[in-house]
Amino acid sequence: MPTLMPVTTTHLGEHLPLLDLLPNEQPLAWIRGGEGLVGWGIHATTTVSGPHRFADARLWWQKQLEGFAVSNSVHGSGTGPLLFTSFSFSPDEPSVLVIPQVIVGMKGGKSWITWIGSASQPVLNSEPAVFTSNPVSWIDDSNADADWKRRVTDSVQRIHDGVLDKVVLARDFSGTAQSHIDARSILKKLAAEYPSTWSFSVSGLVGATPELLLRLSRKMVTSRVLAGTISKTGDDERDLALAASLARSSKDLEEHEYAVRSVAQALEPFCTSTNIPESPYVLHLANVMHLATDVTGALAEKLAHVDSFSILEQLHPSAAVCGTPRSLATELIKEIEGLSRGRYAGPVGWIDAAGDGELGIALRCGEINDRTVRIFAGCGIVAGSNPEKELAESEAKLVPMRTALK
């Protein structure tokens, strides 16, 4: 019999500054409000693509797990060996799977460490890294705004013609820094400025998403749906009035309803019951406000082998990042969007050995390649969309990454 690789998880017990633990080399992170998971070192990595990429990812993960001898004194979701994942938006592009050599997690003030191999427990370095200024110079395309507004106008016309109900259009901007872009610097800025979002880093994709696509833990599933956005002014009284107008906006409520419906329909086959609030709430972030709905459900006991991969396969792409109907929106995106989304708007997060996990939609993010970076923003287009307002919304959604890259 082949020798199994030891995997050890043990308590650390103390409150740790997770992002300060990360080395510069390919940091992995999933953090919200100071809690979550960080990882470094690569035990194994692969890419998957094609229409069966979620099933292929599961098979690869399970094969890796078969080679482990796990000793876990902590237990619970997120402990033991973990898979960090960053799936592409389109099945035609590669999705990245990474098993870290070392993982440190924290939840409820309690922390733990997992490491792979027979070596003794790794020593943690919690000295904060010092970052020098490394601003990005953005490539200026004088036609970009006009081109994107034309795409919005075209999409609205298709919707009025009855071709589809909603489509999500994305745009991107590329830039170059003077030296290697350090994902840790971006993570720390995003986590400090947007603590209620999930800050993430997986294989060069770095961002802070407000949208939780899937949390699966002990047979309970949760998905936070965001659709419908308005920019904040910084004036509290004015922003309260804007929040009220967002909650009453027929255009934004229509966009939101499509997104909630698509998530609820995807979860329904897996659940004995689902809870869908009658109306959304307004989620306040530092720069924008969103209409938000948290959809929850209890997995059916009779269904065997339901895990995060199974549910992701049905959830992605939701109407929040694609449109309604899904197939028609996908075709329109291919026809008129004019860019490769890569892993933008795909599921990103982690999955554990039990198949539980926490994955967001990769929004408010950028893809780093040494000194270059590409950042993204997308807007949901419905019958009432106005090209100028959608342009302004896309600019607001680019602010977190633009600011973090200064």
Automatic annotation (TrEMBL):
Coiled-coil intervals, chain numbering: none
Record bears the keyword Glycoprotein: no
E.C. code: 5.4.4.2
Reaction(s) catalysed (UniProt annotation): chorismate = isochorismate
Keywords of this entry: Isomerase
All copies of domain Chorismate-utilising enzyme C-terminal, residue ranges: 146-397
A GO term, aspect molecular function: isochorismate synthase activity
PANTHER family per record: ISOCHORISMATE SYNTHASE ENTC
Family assignment from sequence similarity: Belongs to the isochorismate synthase family.
Name the record gives this protein: isochorismate synthase
Organism: freshwater metagenome
Organism phylogeny: unclassified sequences, metagenomes, ecological metagenomes
